Amino acid sequence: MAVKKDTPRIINNDIYTAVAKRTSLTKEQIQECFKAYSEIVLEFAEVSNKPLDFAISLPYIGYLQYQRYHNNKTKVSGALRYFTDGANVVDADLSKFKTNKEWDRLTFSVQPAIQRRIKEKSLEMIAQAQKSKELTERDFSNEQKE
């Protein structure tokens, strides 16, 4: 059974609709564009001789970057325990978790101009919230004095 998430989010259909309203394209055409873009990203993921830190542009927004990730994990933090025969607790053999693997990880970087704009808006919203909180506290203290 699916769990409903409380976090606000914009789902794919919302993106298709919003872009369709701003362009002359239909929702189906926009969906095809995103599908084609994901296929391009997957094609590059399958290339074995791509250079380290290889990036794919997402026009006007940022870029996706493949990075070589090294995991030289020699111990697992915390105690790993599992239950056997009902209530008997047995410590796990941590040597099984020792790994020395490399793999490509995909990261997303937003353009600096977009990051600045988001930061400015966030700071404005925080300042407004603090100002309204100060006004509310001042009004509350004035009511108590009367």
Please give the structural blueprint.
Layout lengths: L11 H11 L4 H19 L9 E4 L3 E10 L9 E4 L3 E4 L9 E10 L1 H34 L1
Antiparallel strand pairs: 1-2, 2-5, 3-4
Helix pairs in contact: 1-2
Q: What does this protein structure show overall?
A:
With 146 residues, the protein is an alpha+beta fold. Among the domains are: 64-110, no CATH class; 112-146. The protein has helices at residues 12-22, 27-45, 112-145, and strands spanning 55-58, 62-71, 81-84, 88-91, 101-110. A 3-stranded antiparallel sheet has the order 1-2-5. Strands 3-4 form a two-stranded antiparallel sheet. A hairpin with a 3-residue loop joins strand 3 and strand 4 (88-91). The radius of gyration is 25 Å and the shape is elongated. The model is unreliable at 74-84 (pLDDT under 50).
Q: Report the β-strand fraction as a percent range.
A: 15-25%
Using the alpha-carbon principal axes, give the shape: elongated
Return the average pLDDT rounded to an integer. Answer: 76
SS content category:
alpha+beta
Ranges with pLDDT <50 over ≥5 residues?
A: 74-84
Strand segment tally: 5
Radius of gyration: 25 Å
The largest beta-sheet arranges its strands as 1-2-5
